[in-house]
Design a protein that fits this description.
The chain has helices spanning about 1-30, 70-100, and strands at about 35-40, 45-50, 55-60. By secondary structure, it is an alpha+beta fold. Helix 1 (about 1-30) packs antiparallel against helix 2. It starts with a helix and ends in a 10-residue tail after the last helix.
């Protein structure tokens, strides 16, 4: 009967260790960034591993009051690509912790 509780204690310890590793990975991801561009580099964004937009750089040559929609499209495209790359980077880091297993709710 006590074996069952010992096994449970070991399981709890493993869960706590995994939680600590997960917190460390999330902390590291906040420091890692990816960059994406659109419009041949006219719009450049940087996104961190926690999916926060860190910066946007727009080449002055694409700032034209007559072409606002084009600039909006370029910004949207660059941000979406940056977020995709950040998710990919975060997924790679998390797979190191999970051994490649997809754990629902762990990553968006």
């Amino acid at each position: 009967m006590s074996e069952g509780f010992g096994g449970m204690g070991g399981l709890m310890k493993q869960a706590q260790e995994m939680q600590a590793k997960l917190a460390k990975i999330q902390e590291e991801l906040a420091k890692k960034t990816v960059e994406a561009t659109s419009g041949g580099g006219m719009v450049r964004v940087t996104v961190n591993g926690q999916f926060t937009l860190a910066s946007i750089k727009v080449d002055p040559s694409v700032i034209d009051p007559e072409e606002v929609e084009m600039l909006e499209d370029l910004v949207r495209a660059a941000v979406n690509e940056g977020l995709r790359r950040a998710r990919e980077m975060a997924s790679e880091e998390m797979s190191k912790l999970t051994g490649g297993f997809k754990i629902p709710g762990l990553m968006p």
